[in-house]
Amino acid sequence: MPEIAENRTIFSLLEVSRSIQKTIGERYKSLYWIKAEMNKLNYYSHSGHCFPELVEKTDGRIVAEMRSILWKADYQRINQQFLQLLNEPLKDGITILFRAAISYDPLYGLSLKIVDIDPTFVLGELEREKRESIQRLQEEGLFFRNKRLPFPTVAKRLAIISVETSKGLSDFFKIIHNNPWSYRFEYTLFPALLQGDKSIPSIINQLAVIAGRIEQFDAVAIIRGGGGEVGLSSYNNYQLAKAIAIFPIPVITGIGHSTNETVSELVAHKNAITPSELADFLIQRFHQFAIPVDEAQRRLIQASQALFQQESRLLDHLSQSISWHSKAVLSTHSHLLHTLTGRLQLVSRQRIRDQKNDLNSMVRLLQLADPKQLLKRGFSITRVNGQAISSEANVNIGDEVETILFNGSFRSRITDKNDLHE
């Protein structure tokens, strides 16, 4: 009962709380479908109960907030429905449509007792956001911008946005490192959160870092392990999809799911269902370049070998021709030399004989001209003062002359001389 003091009615806090509890209990007797963002699930493993933190935002600002209760049995049932339909458990950061009772407790205050959550609504919300993002990007002319970029002939230098511990990244590396052709890729890892609301600024920030080093890379790869639709909701975000669409080099994705494509995948230059498929795509691009190069190399080697063989045969033929021709020329010249040698010998013998005859004739002439032969025939040589004289003009009367005969000489004095021409 309230107290009366100084003409004032005073209620205790418990009385006010119970009044509110009674009023709310009488006013909200039914179960209500309510839409809110589950900011945090607040699951307690020791009890199995959840105490979801519910908010409503307008332009990113919280305009309403309320606590709620999800008892263990209801949580297990609802979580199983999410796993079956969405392939993911109930988690933080999703907008839900839930059925709840409104209650007030004097000790714990106002709360919503959740008895059911519609998993199809979550899908609907994802689809709504997806349609709005697609429409906005199309209206701005950005939807196909990244797809229109020329893809490198060989995307060898990769900037990878992922988490180091991601199974999808491990599968990706396993394939590109162990490809049977030993193609080698260069890559730099840019770690980022890959799901939940925080993944949006995380991925966008890493794209900005890569843009500052754009000349070092051929393409950007966003790689994530498997997951359901709820975990992929951030990839329908307009801001993230726009950052991918306007990126200056091709962005390729392998975020690990086989259902509907997210907006980020739709605007990317190439999207693969899984990181493994993305690795296969890059290897195939490498292979498409390598096969013609290998074929050209093979043809070049074959052409070179054929040319060498042809030139070798020609060289052998020329060698044989030269050898045969040389032998023929040598044989001809040898025969000619033999003939000339024979002729030369005949001519030489004849010349020698002729020279010998001429020499003999000259010898005979010389023998005939020998003064001794003349003296022997009765001629003599007359000298005056050691000089032979041939004319009476060379001597004077009174000169002493020497007369040389074949077998001796004598001296006499000129007493008279006659000129035979007088």
Automatic annotation (TrEMBL):
CDD domains: ExoVII_LU_OBF
Span of domain Exonuclease VII large subunit C-terminal: 142-361
Catalytic function, reaction form: Exonucleolytic cleavage in either 5'- to 3'- or 3'- to 5'-direction to yield nucleoside 5'-phosphates
Highest taxon of the lineage: Bacteria
Domain OB-fold nucleic acid binding, residue spans: 12-117
Similarity comment: Belongs to the XseA family.
Protein's name according to its UniProt entry: Exodeoxyribonuclease 7 large subunit
Organism: Sphingobacterium allocomposti
